[in-house]
Amino acid sequence: MKRKDLEEHIEEYLLEEQEDEKAKNTLIHYRHIINMFVSSLPDDEITKVDFMRFKEIMLEKYKPKTVSNYITIVNKFIKYVEMSMDESIQDFDFNRMKKYYSKQTLKNIKIQQEASLKEVLEPIDLKRMLRMAKKLEEWDLYYIMKAIAYTGVRAEELKIFTVENLESNYIKVKNKGKIRNVIVPQDLRRDLLKYCKNAGITTGYIFPGKKSGTMLHSTTIYKRLKKLAGQCRGVKKSKVHAHSFRHLFAIKYMEEYGNISELADILGHSSIETTRIYTRTTDKMKRERMERMKY
């Protein structure tokens, strides 16, 4: 296998991933990693040692979790190229790829998951941030926090909150190739409709961007939330990140009801193992619960 063999298959592979209904941002990420991988290789004949060298370079630059993601993408691409060059294989499909064995793929990194997190957004943090947003009259942020904290949606899924969709307590969302119903509690729905009325929002996104017909970008949302956290006494800015309010929802739901399979459905996870990541707490939170235990 030569570098040009890999280069010639990049577009074909990304097209296969697109037809497998991968999200636009996922495809952009795949392209970036594959281009980085291919450009690191020598022009002539490539060996497993060259692939291993790429892994070593990545480990020097990035965190193990990031490298693990890169290796997963690279291994899929390597398998695809090998399968495409194998004349005995007529039609490609991803199920066949999973079973396909390649000597060229890289061993992934085993990452030991910590039993506890160092920092997690807690209910008291949410209350302080809501109070500050109210004080500053940043009503869009106020209701964005409530929307995520009471439904568990991802930041990029906030676009489902439109005036039209708020006619129901159930909103269909498609994300990462899966469709699920987001349940909007009645109190939240009432609050959001009141917010729309006060803000003069009569149609479309209830959290609009500056440009007409656009939605506030998730990056903008979290920059503003971090800034808001910095204005709240007792709230660490480091606690506010891409999934902190969704994480808070998951912990609260488990505290109240303890049904992880139900929570997986609500969050849109196909694997309960993914849901477990969202239910991890800090040592401080574990201790507080144990202090309340009585026999």
From TrEMBL:
Record GO biological process: DNA integration; DNA recombination
Domain Core-binding (CB): 4-82
Tyr recombinase domain location: 116-291
Protein's organism: Amedibacterium intestinale
Pfam families registered for this protein in UniProt: Phage_integrase
Keyword Zinc-finger part of the UniProt annotation: no
SUPFAM superfamilies the record matches: DNA breaking-rejoining enzymes
GO terms for MF: DNA binding
Record key words, sorted: DNA recombination, DNA-binding
PROSITE patterns for this protein: CB (PS51900), TYR_RECOMBINASE (PS51898)
Record protein name field: Integrase
